[in-house]
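Researcher: Sequence of Aldo/keto reductase follows. Predict its structure.
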Amino acid sequence: MEYLFSRREMVKSIGVSGCAMLLNPLLSHAKTDQAMILQRSIPVSGEKIPVVGLGSWQQFDVGPSASERTPLKEVLKEMQEMGGKLIDASPMYGRSEEVIGELTTALKNNDQFFFATKVWTTGRQEGIDQMNDSFKKMGRKKMDLMQVHNLQDWQTHLKTLKDWKTQGRVKYIGITHYTDSAHPRLEQIVKSKEIDFVQFNYSIRSRNAEKSLLNAARDNGVAVIINEPFEQGALFRAVKGKELPAFAADYDIKSWAQFFLKYIISQEAVTCAIPGTSDVKHLVENLSAGLGKLPDEAGRKKMIEWIEKV
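Model: Prediction complete. Tokens:
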């Protein structure tokens, strides 16, 4: 485990910008603490990324109006300032690739992020055309991670992606799905050692991945991205109006979002979880799950027992 900056570097940065921060105590607290966000290594390369990223399904599928895009621009700006990296998109997500590309280009921080997108079609040439379109929309000549979305024609697309990785067009390649029923196939591909990343669903109530998929990824040196960490909001609906359990403080958990995310990222096989949001406050809350203590096995068991009583 590693963090974004050392405490000494953090103190040094406060010395430079401390006066400005004192104008807003809440901002000061956020900006200084974020320097300690947990990072994990991508096994195939050793490159480190923060354990919480950003999903774009629905939230980034918006039109060109300022009212729709300004909140997203603020999310991306804040994410970069906090040291956030991974942003996940897909052609399936409507305008998300285009919006991410245009906003990060306008903010002049496009190359500061780790862009992960997908190919979601059938056929070799169709896949090539779609991926080239994603490069154009996201403003990239090289994509950090290209994934085969929901395993659609995965054997065909992986052949292309292996060639593109050799050519330097993509840095990493991977596969994705979002249902428990796909876990056995994902595990088979993980064990083939032909991919760098695998993305799948996992949450405190949806724990099928704990049976063997998480261990398979760890044992075969494949990075893990977690989707559906909040079960499309169902977890928040389940705890609506309820107080955090007292033991949550033992793991520096200050919100339900952090309760759910810390359960996930406490699994060392998990490289990054990608909750989606279009709200700056929620972004800060989500990324801050990478701060402080993580639950151990005893803590994870208590979290499960508590949530199963809801």
